[in-house]
Amino acid sequence: MKTRTRHDPAGQDQDATPGTRERIVRAASVLMQRQGYDGTGIKQISQEAGATLGSVYHFFPGGKQELAVAAVRRGDEEFAGILREILDGEPGPAEAVVAVTRSLAEGLRASDWLDGCPVTATALGTAGRLPDIQRAASSAFAGWEGIVAEMLRAAGIAEEEAADLAGMVVCTLEGAELSAQVSRDERPLLVAGEQLARLIALSLRGGLPAGS
Amino acid sequence: MKTRTRHDPAGQDQDATPGTRERIVRAASVLMQRQGYDGTGIKQISQEAGATLGSVYHFFPGGKQELAVAAVRRGDEEFAGILREILDGEPGPAEAVVAVTRSLAEGLRASDWLDGCPVTATALGTAGRLPDIQRAASSAFAGWEGIVAEMLRAAGIAEEEAADLAGMVVCTLEGAELSAQVSRDERPLLVAGEQLARLIALSLRGGLPAGS
DNA sequence: GTCTATAGGATGATAGAC
DNA sequence: GTCTATCATCCTATAGAC
């Protein structure tokens, strides 16, 4: 699926000396995550990537829009990987969700509250205007939900309830990271983690259906 | 606090024939909500408001940045009003939160998924770059949390737990609205409403502390 | 307070040499 | 594939007449 112009002996995408296209996508992902679609210039991306403007348009003939879609997909895959990694390392779903919030809080603090969700800023500024970007973002959310839902089902929660809970988890993580970033305070994320854990524990015990 | 150039007999800010400054702030709020800070031009704002560029800089000598702060504050007040109105009309906090999600879903659908949270897009695109806007957005979130916390305390939830729950509610609403807008589907909001209601019901019964 | 005109710079995108 | 030069357009902000 990915066009590699350089021979890759290991057959994997390592970080070592990434190709030009790869550097452009990475730079676009980081910059648009921080500044949004309209706030990020192609010239800025090319400089940050150590490439020229010509190279950008060589790899992305569709221009800024095509590049933004690639950047969102990249952010999608990155967070999906982190999510899977954390979830696999925790004993249960409640602990796993708390661990994710802690990881997000660390990432925010380490970047001085600059690096939030890798798709939100790009998607939000282009909401009813650039459908390709919107679709890529929507697909990212759906994928993350699927990962969380799988974990919940593996823990014994019924199919339908797991899907609802997973949606709730992803939405809350999204909102809590946003709130933490804007207020430059990790508390929203930590509180969200605790409350989500409470909710998951409740479902694990099969208690208190929604209507009561 | 507000400079009114026109005589206002009722002593209130009615919608009838709003002054130029008011029209500019409204247009800026709507446009930045949809397109973000960098995606919205001052010229576009002035046209939408039926004002000239000179008028915009007359009322907002600080330029785009000052105007964006006013727009975010306006969005803050508007949603705070809606929130208070809905919360007052519901019998309990669980029903109230569900009613809010339904209202948000209706607003999204009615605008063809264009009008999401009135502060998120503006704040997110300017995150570590324009502190004044960030502070206005942070203050908005804090205010909404306060409104929700007051409702929860009035329902008998202890001070500290009410604060945490209110933070959770606002974060989840934020994330669910974002998710619903991006996926053009109201389900994230409705699921979030149900799950938040479950969580609130749990707190009302004093059950299942976070650590268990 | 309202309006027009314009300065000064940045933007997305293209052309074409190498 | 890489690079530079350039076009046409847009932007924020200002100046100054009315």
TrEMBL record, chains A, B:
Keywords: DNA-binding, Transcription, Transcription regulation
PROSITE patterns linked to this entry: HTH_TETR_2 (PS50977)
Domain of life where this protein originates: Bacteria
Coiled coil: none
HTH tetR-type domain span: 18-78
Keyword Transcription in record: yes
Entries under Gene3D superfamilies matching the protein: Tetracycline Repressor, domain 2
DNA-binding region, residue intervals: 41-60
Name assigned to this protein: TetR/AcrR family transcriptional regulator
Organism: Streptomyces yaizuensis
